[in-house]
Automatic annotation (TrEMBL):
<dbReference type="Pfam" id="PF12804">
    <property type="entry name" value="NTP_transf_3"/>
</dbReference>
<keyword id="KW-0808">Transferase</keyword>
<keyword id="KW-0460">Magnesium</keyword>
<dbReference type="InterPro" id="IPR029044">
    <property type="entry name" value="Nucleotide-diphossugar_trans"/>
</dbReference>
<dbReference type="InterPro" id="IPR025877">
    <property type="entry name" value="MobA-like_NTP_Trfase"/>
</dbReference>
<feature type="domain" description="MobA-like NTP transferase">
    <location>
        <begin position="10"/>
        <end position="156"/>
    </location>
</feature>
<protein>
    <submittedName>
        <fullName>NTP transferase domain-containing protein</fullName>
    </submittedName>
</protein>
<dbReference type="GO" id="GO:0016779">
    <property type="term" value="F:nucleotidyltransferase activity"/>
</dbReference>
């Protein structure tokens, strides 16, 4: 978990249009609640000093206690614009964790392991690739704030990147298609 000495914020990306899903992905029911709330709850259990929820201009996601809603007017251009909008809106953080609202099974334990790293750390996927959630020190905030298109932070030339795999690979499940919710519901 974030230490009391450092100020670590979280940017939860929830501005995607969910086209493959057929729309309304993040507000779709998953185990009795809207899908995005699972990632939000994980972040709430990680004791961040600042919590930002980045949404698109036509989002059906409402405000949530303890979160600051950031509207990304360029969301249709891709995830990079949402990362940039969130990082630019941080007020006083030494580090930031970027999370995706369509990954409902990520645990606070995994987030804590990312935050305990010393520099940039991405989640390592089963194929060895880097992805979200990820943590970044203030030193790279300007690079994150300059992202303009679909490509996210992996596209940046960042030195000394650490990859951290979750203890349980099932935490990496994300929802892209409507059948993904059914698959996740039946898996546990």
């Amino acid at each position: 978990m974030p230490s009391s000495e450092s100020k670590t914020g979280v940017v939860l990306l929830a501005a995607g249009q969910g086209k493959r899903f057929g729309g309304g992905k993040l507000t779709a029911d998953f185990r009795g609640r809207p899908l995005w709330e699972w990632a939000a709850e994980t972040a709430e259990n990680a004791n961040f000093s600042e919590r930002l929820l980045v949404v698109g201009s036509d989002s059906l996601i409402g405000n949530r206690r303890g979160w600051r809603l950031i509207e990304n007017l360029a969301a249709e251009r891709g995830m990079g614009t949402s990362i940039a909008a969130g990082v630019r809106a941080l007020t006083d953080c030494d580090r930031v964790v970027v999370m995706l609202a369509d990954m409902p099974l990520v645990s606070p334990t995994h987030i804590g392991r990312l935050v305990s790293s010393q520099g940039v750390a991405f989640t390592q996927y089963h194929d060895g690739k880097a992805g979200c959630p990820a943590v970044f020190p203030r030193l790279v905030f300007p690079q994150l704030a300059s992202l303009r298109r679909e490509r996210g932070a992996r596209s940046l030339d960042l030195a000394d990147v650490e990859l951290i795999a979750p203890i349980d690979e099932r935490e990496l499940a994300d929802v892209d298609w409507a059948y993904d919710i059914e698959r996740l519901n039946s898996a546990n």
